[in-house]
Amino acid sequence: MRREQRYNPPTTQMVAFCHGLYGCYHSVHVYVHTPGYGSTHVTVRLQTDLYDPGTAAPVRSAQLQTLDPASTSDIMDSVIREVVKDLRCEQFI
User: Does residue 85 share a domain with residue 50?
Assistant: First the structure.
């Protein structure tokens, strides 16, 4: 798991509003300012390797990287489901 702190700088954008039936008779320009802010991003990497118990040869490997996961156990459950589905599809289990 890796945590990264980032600073998002302030921004200024101009937004134009037009009024009138056929084209812009009146226009208003507004500047929208967004303050800068800090944020923390979490990256989780999960690797699963399956080996043949008779030969110790690798059978499958799965890797997953996700940004800001809600739950580490949700990620593991997702990888396990996909690996099991793949193993069933190829009749390993």
Answer: yes
